[in-house]
Each structure stands twice: as structure tokens, then as C-alpha cells.
């Protein structure tokens, strides 16, 4: 949208999303101490699957 409608170079757009008024969300963000062992394990599995997918896509596009 910005590329199509920008009136000049270096145009920026402000996101309509707002942070929560309550700052307690910061305690949960990337805080392993607040996750269970099962949640950490699931997140690690998801991250590993994403790394494998990214590597496969890279290999297909640029080769070995």
C-alpha cells in the first residue's frame, strides 16, 4: 500500500495496532520462567521445524 500511495520518498506509515495499556504483557513476552516444560518443548519443536523448512527452501532456491 505504501509503495502505491506514497506521496514522496521515505514515507512512513503508522501501524493502527496499539500496545496494551497494562504493561504486564512484557512479563510474558519471551519469558521462559512463565512457560511449562511442555510449552517450551512444543516451542522448540516448532522452531526446529521452521529452521528445517527454511533450510529446504534455501537449498531449492540457491542449491547446495
Q: What's the layout of helices and strands?
A:
Elements: H1 2-5, H2 25-28, H3 37-62
Describe what you observe in this structure.
The chain has 64 residues and is mostly helical. The chain contains three helices and no strands.
List keywords for this structure.
64 residues; 3 helices; mainly alpha
Query: Quaternary state, please?
Result: single chain
Number of helices: 3
- In round numbers, the mean pLDDT is 90
> What structural class do the secondary elements suggest?
mainly alpha
- As a whole number of angstroms, the C-alpha radius of gyration is 19 Å
Distance between the termini: 36 Å
Please give the largest β-sheet.
none
Helix and strand element order: HHH
Strand proportion: under 5%
Shape: flat
> Helix content range of the residues, please?
40-55%
The number of strands is 0
Uncertain stretches of 5 or more adjacent residues: none
